[in-house]
Design a protein that fits this description.
The complex is a heterodimer of chains A (397) and B (149). Chain A is an alpha+beta fold and 397 residues long. Chain A has helices spanning 10-18, 27-45, 119-127, 298-304, 335-340, 358-375; strands at 24-26, 48-50, 53-56, 61-65, 77-80, 83-85, 93-97, 132-137, 148-153, 160-168, 175-177, 184-186, 189-191, 198-200, 219-220, 223-226, 229-236, 259-264, 273-278, 282-290, 292-294, 312-317, 332-334, 342-345, 348-354, 384-385. Chain B folds into two domains: 2-74, Alpha-Beta Plaits; 78-133, Alpha-Beta Plaits (2-Layer Sandwich), CATH 3.30.70.20. The chains are: A alpha+beta (397), B alpha+beta (149).
């Protein structure tokens, strides 16, 4: 414990929040503070660093309990606005996935498909207060006699609605290029042939897991900003993979950690949950996510002080390599380079475009800061930690 | 150099005339036809970029208007729904003329309608469908209007 010069507990930080004395800054602001005052000075001064990210996040969805009918029904197949939901849970519990397209969607039959409406759009419509049309089919039992039902309903009509995203907030992600000779439409956007554009998708220095690269404070039970409301980290996300190459600062240079998050959908907002249509790929949901990071010691100050110039990712070919499972990259670039609008791949200048909104990420970090300062939003200590790897800074400052 | 992009609607009577020829010859303006759908004896549309000194462009437009051509700045036909757009920036990799671009270091995604050529690539490229180009709709509507008239 006492290997650190600064030692703060969650309880101490929460007491300072309660007393209105806590110093809360965004991850962007923390970069300068650590540069100016060093990790120890910054850790003494700052109690919480707020992070944020807003982007398309596949592996999102929601559980609904849509309310019983008379006679009762054990729904076996369910559609909301013609988008199929999974009903094999119980009588009227369903799970609606963000990437599920409407059943009558032409998909990629007219290539590249538009994917105008799917699960993500329903989640947005519901939090926006819109009515949706639900249809269920069932087989009859003695306790559930109804075999079909159709009803219009709003989010307020649902007895229970839980946003439950098995994988959000990817810690770093590939920079995508296309080295083939035809345009490809991917989940990383449209990529021109011959490596003529590069797309990337991370909030960089504002991104939650890039500010806590070893998952020292983000774990099971962490209270967060989710979709405009309060949510929780409930497990490490699917594909969570801490064992990737990392820099001297502990930051992964490949896609690595992920979070599973959930929260009551009824207190969320359509400003921070947006149905998206990705040309040629499919539907999904853009999710606003923000995590507060307690500055327990100078090490956490150092982690949260990371800047775009110190975060690297790999350039991956989505024209051939990705689809064929070929583990290969075409060099590494920093987020400072990516955000500059131009990178170099194999000696050639390539213009870049982001898929993750820095403007909204910054706004989320600000909102979270105000929740802590004005609403007494309390930080939670994880009840269990994510799988991680050993790491220590080589030399002290 | 003064550069503007215009959306022109030709009446039936004018669609046979060599309008562009006169535009260059008499008013000394550079032109660039970005899109055109003009058939003889039918209403037609054209997206035209004009370059030249301001006075020449003004007079050229006067000439067009005199022929009954309805002239509108293209910029008024392209819209970004600011409540839909969440400033991700995906469009900036698609837009071929930099009308959709990023202000650095803030990373704000900006739309400059004056630079837009109305190609429409951003419409389906935008994940939340925030871009609206109402010339494609007009292209489809126009023949119907002509038949009705």
């Amino acid at each position: 414990m006492s290997e650190h010069q600064v030692n703060k507990t969650y309880a101490e930080i929460n007491a300072r929040i309660k007393a209105g004395e806590a110093v809360v800054v965004t991850a962007e602001e923390m970069v300068d503070i650590v540069r100016r005052e060093g990790p120890v000075g910054a850790a003494k001064k700052v109690d919480v660093v707020t992070t944020g990210t807003f982007s398309t996040m596949c592996s999102s969805g929601a559980f609904f309990n849509f309310g019983q009918t008379t006679p009762t029904i054990k729904a076996a197949r369910v559609w909301i606005n013609k988008v199929p939901a999974y009903a094999g849970l119980a009588a009227i519990d369903i799970y609606l996935g963000a990437t599920e397209p409407a059943e009558d969607d032409p998909l990629n039959k007219v290539y590249p498909g538009e994917f105008r409406y799917g699960g993500g759009h329903i989640i947005e419509d519901l939090v926006a207060g819109k009515k949706v049309f639900l249809e269920a089919k069932a087989y009859a039992t003695d306790c559930y006699a109804n075999t079909k039902c159709k009803k219009e309903l709003t989010l307020a009509d649902m007895p229970h609605a839980l946003l439950c995203n098995p994988r959000n907030g990817y810690q770093n992600y590939n920079c995508a290029v296309n080295l083939s000779d035809r345009t490809v439409y991917t989940y990383m956007g449209m990529l021109k042939p011959g490596c003529r554009n590069a797309n990337y998708c991370s909030a960089g220095e504002l991104s939650p897991l890039l500010n806590d690269p070893l998952y020292r404070t983000i774990g099971v039970g962490t209270r967060i900003f989710l979709g405009g409301g309060v949510g929780y980290v409930t497990w490490h996300g699917t594909q969570h993979n801490p064992g990737v190459p990392r820099g001297d600062n502990g930051v992964p240079r490949r896609p690595a950690g992920t979070m599973m998050v959930q929260g009551d959908l009824k207190q969320m907002s359509a400003d921070w949950l947006r149905g998206v249509s990705i040309q040629g790929y499919g539907c999904s949901l853009a999710v606003g996510l923000g995590v507060p990071i307690p500055i327990l010691n100078e090490e956490m100050a150092r982690f949260t002080g990371v800047s775009d110039a110190e975060i690297f990712t790999q350039v991956v070919d989505y024209g051939h390599d990705y689809t064929n499972g070929i583990q290969r990259n075409y060099g590494e670039v920093s987020y400072a380079q990516l955000k500059s609008g131009m990178i170099e791949v194999a000696g050639k200048k390539v213009p870049t475009a982001p898929l993750s909104s820095v403007v909204k990420a910054r706004e989320i970090a600000e909102i979270l800061r105000h929740w802590i300062l004005d609403r007494g939003f309390q930080l939670t200590e994880p009840v269990a930690n994510f799988p991680t790897v050993d790491f220590s800074f080589d030399v002290a400052e | 150099m003064y550069t503007r992009i215009y959306f022109l609607r030709y009446p039936k009577e004018t669609s046979d005339d060599p309008v562009i020829y006169h535009l260059v010859k008499q008013y000394d303006v550079e032109f660039n036809i970005l899109k055109a759908d003009i058939r003889p004896q039918r209403d037609g549309i054209m997206i035209l970029e004009l370059k030249g000194n301001r006075e020449n462009v003004r007079e050229a437009l006067g000439y067009l208007k005199g022929l009954g051509v309805k002239v509108e700045r293209l910029a008024t036909r392209i819209r970004r729904d600011e409540s839909r757009c969440f400033q991700c920036g995906a469009c900036t990799g698609i837009c071929p003329v930099g009308a959709l671009h990023i202000r650095r270091p803030e990373m704000e995604v900006l739309f400059d309608p004056e630079k837009c050529t109305g190609c429409g690539l951003c419409v389906t490229g935008c994940p939340v469908r925030a871009m609206e180009v109402s010339i494609d709709r007009l292209l489809k509507e126009e023949p119907a209007v002509a038949q009705g008239a």
